[in-house]
Amino acid sequence: MNLGFFASGSGSNFEAVAKRCRSGELAAEPTVVICNVSDAGVFARAKRFGVPCFLVRRDDFTQGREFASRLLEILREHQVELVLLAGYLRKLPPAVAQAYPNRVLNIHPALLPSFGGKGMYGARVHEAVLAAGCRVTGVTVHIVDSEYDRGLIVLQRTVEVKDGDDPATLAARVLKVEHEIYGDVVKLFIENRVRVEGDRVRILSQVR
Ligand code: GRF
C-alpha cells in the first residue's frame, strides 16, 4: 500500500512509519511527503529514506482550488492510497479528503475529543493536559473528513501523566506512543480491518 505523508515539522512520525515499511513489517511503501515549511526537519528525514519531499505552500497559490489541485496531483503521481497527516499544521483542503474518502488520517497527541480543536497543537496540548490535572493522556488517530468535522476515531492509546511532568517530559512520553500507534493503524488498513459504520469506526478482529 502506497503511503503519502503531510508534515510541517521534524517528521519523526513519518520516520517511525517509514522504518516499519522498510523493515518489511508493514506491507507498505512511503512514496511521497508534502511539507508546507521550507526548513522543516522532515526534508532531511525523507531524503535519508529516499522518499521525495515536496514543498507546497498555500501562499504560493492565489486560489485555494489551485493549491488543492497541486496537492492531489502529487498524491496521484505517487499513486498514494492512504494519506497520513503527521504533524501537518495547516488545514487540508476539503478536496483532498473528498478524493480519499476515509483514507486521510491524522495523529493527535491527546485523547480526543478532549484537548483538540483550533490552536491545540504542539506543547499547548500537553500544557492544557497538565493544567487540567489529568492523570492520563494519550494519542488519537482519527479520520479526516471533508464534509463534517467528525474526526472519527480509529485508534487511541493512553499514556500516564506522572507527578513532576512538564510539557516536555509529557510530550516525549506521548511521542513514543505516537511512533507505535501510527504504524499499527497503517497495518489495520493494509489488513482491510477498518470499517466506517455511521458515526463510528469498527475494527474487524478477524483477518480474512
Ligand atoms: C506530533 O506530536 C504529532 O502528534 C503532532 O505534531 C507532532 C509532530 O511530530 N500533530 P513529528 O513532526 O512527527 O516529529
Task: Please provide a written account of the structure.
The chain is of the alpha/beta class and 208 residues long. The chain folds into two domains: 1-100, Formyl transferase, N-terminal domain (Rossmann fold, 3-Layer(aba) Sandwich), CATH 3.40.50; 107-208, Formyl transferase, N-terminal domain (Rossmann fold). The chain contains six helices and nine strands. The protein has a seven-stranded mixed sheet with strand order 3-2-1-4-5-6-7, with helices on both faces. It has a two-stranded antiparallel ribbon with strand order 8-9. It is globular, with a radius of gyration of 17 Å. The protein starts with a strand and ends in a 5-residue tail after the last strand. The mean pLDDT is 95. The chain binds 5-O-phosphono-beta-D-ribofuranosylamine. 5-O-phosphono-beta-D-ribofuranosylamine (GRF) binds at residues 7, 9-13, 86-87, 107-109, 121, 175, 178.
Tell me the layout of helices and strands:
Layout: E1 2-7, H1 12-22, E2 29-35, H2 42-48, E3 53-55, H3 64-77, E4 82-85, H4 94-99, E5 104-108, H5 123-131, E6 136-143, E7 153-160, H6 167-190, E8 194-197, E9 200-203
Helix pairs in contact: 1-6, 5-6
The protein binds 5-O-phosphono-beta-D-ribofuranosylamine (GRF).
5-O-phosphono-beta-D-ribofuranosylamine binds at residues 7, 9-13, 86-87, 107-109, 121, 175, 178.
